[in-house]
Design a protein that fits this description.
This protein has 247 residues and is mainly beta. It has 2 helices and 17 strands. Strand 14 and strand 15 form a beta hairpin. The longest helix is centred in the C-terminal third of the chain and has 9 residues. The two termini are 25 Å apart.
Length: 247
């Protein structure tokens, strides 16, 4: 996150694509420059832009390129979209990407995610895929932190579309995709509900968006369910309450 050209803080995000329009999915608190406890991030300045590292695949290697996106149409008018019903209470936003030409995006598909298809229950393993303390593996490859489901994913925790995981996450992982990873053996349940026996390709299912610990003394963290992504994009509502559905 940048204020002009000055670094404010770092976080994690991922891409989804709807009707050929790519969106960056991340936490609202990343873009407004305050953490989930409403404390200032980094140097306390308010971000105006976001620099995003994308993979850039060449014929013989994987490289990395950074694209910059503006966060505001004008002061006080954010470009990102928020949840049409819960607004800022859902700590997830969708930022339309306008600097994605020439990139080979690898988007997640939240519509294919359904925890019931992968037997998600309390104590099941999940992975938070992001950049703790801005650490990365092999250039800009994310780090996978293991966690366990701490509340029933079918139930809305605290009356909102979220559940809790128990994982030792740290600064920089806000906005990470939370993944269920099915190994390539045994019985595999796929996101479309089908079941395969024996060898099958590994399956990664998006379970939601990580947005930080419930408090600094706990390893319990919030995961916003994947349906909020579709609801945000479908609602096309910016934080001022203005509908952007007509473009």
């Amino acid at each position: 996150m940048l204020a002009g050209d000055t670094l404010v803080a770092r976080g994690t995000g991922f891409v989804v694509v709807t009707d050929a329009q790519p969106f960056l999915i991340t936490n609202r608190h990343n873009l407004i420059g305050r953490d989930s406890d409403n404390e200032p991030l980094g140097n306390g300045r308010i971000p105006t832009r976001v620099g995003i590292w994308h993979s850039a695949v060449t014929t013989d290697s994987i490289g990395w390129t950074q694209r910059t996106e503006e966060l505001y149409f004008e002061p006080g008018s954010p470009r990102w979209l928020e949840h049409p019903q819960h607004g800022r209470r859902v700590d997830v936003v969708a930022l339309p990407l306008h600097s994605a030409d020439g990139l080979q995006l690898r988007p997640y598909n939240p519509a294919a995610s359904n925890p019931s298809f992968v037997n998600m229950e309390v104590s099941a393993d999940v992975f938070i895929v992001g950049f703790p303390f801005n650490l990365a593996a092999g250039g800009r490859l994310a780090i996978w932190s293991r966690g366990t489901v701490a509340t029933d994913p079918i139930i809305d925790y605290d009356g909102l579309p979220q559940f809790l995981v128990d994982s030792r996450t740290r600064q920089g992982q806000s906005g990470s995709p939370v993944i269920h990873w099915s190994q390539a053996s045994g019985t595999t349940r796929h996101p479309d509900g089908s079941v395969s026996m024996g060898y099958s390709p590994p399956t990664a299912t998006l379970l939601g968006v990580y947005s930080g610990r419930v408090n600094k003394e706990s390893d319990l963290g919030r995961v916003w369910k994947p349906q909020v992504i579709a609801e945000i994009i479908r609602g096309q509502m910016n934080p001022t309450g203005e509908s952007l559905a007509s473009g």
